[in-house]
Amino acid sequence: MAKPKLRNLPDLAHLTRPGQSIPVRVTPKAAEDRVSFDGATVHIAVTAVPEDGKANQAVVKLLARAMGASPSALTLKKGHTGRDKVFVYDP
After folding, report:
1. Gyration radius of the chain over CA positions
2. Hey, where are the domains in the chain?
3. Contact 65, 6 (CB under 8 A)
4. N or C, which terminus of the chain has less Cβ within 10 Å?
5. Which family does it belong to (predicted)?
């Protein structure tokens, strides 16, 4: 069974400035993938499990899609194993 397509992603295009730090709060093993933005932090829930970097990969894909950017333009700078992460946009 294929994963359902994500709908209603917030427009995070304003975060696509070179060198922009993006604080992210991650919830792994969620019921569904979703992205929300409260003005300071991006909240991302992913269905992926937090082992072998699977959740981090899912977060990068979702964040890049919401930003309208390539996943390779995002670099995880802080929080490799924690729920609070900092990504840097570097095209």
Report:
1. 12
2. 16-89
3. yes
4. N
5. Belongs to the UPF0235 family.
Kindly report the average pLDDT of the chain as a whole number: 92
| 38-85 per-position pLDDT tens digit | 999 999 999 999 999 999 999 999 999 999 999 999 999 999 999 999
Q: What are phi and psi of 23, to 5 degrees?
A: -75, 135
Q: How many CB atoms lie within 10 A of CB 27?
A: 15
Q: Which helix (H) or strand (E) holds 61?
A: helix 54-67
Which is nearest to 54 in space by CA: 35, 81, 78? 81
Phi, psi of 71 (to 5 degrees): -60, -30
The CATH T-level fold of domain 16-89 is Conserved Hypothetical Protein Mth637; Chain: A; (3.30.1200)
* Torsion-angle region of 12 (φ positive above 0: left; ψ -120 to 50: alpha; else: beta): alpha
For residue 34, the SS3 value is: strand
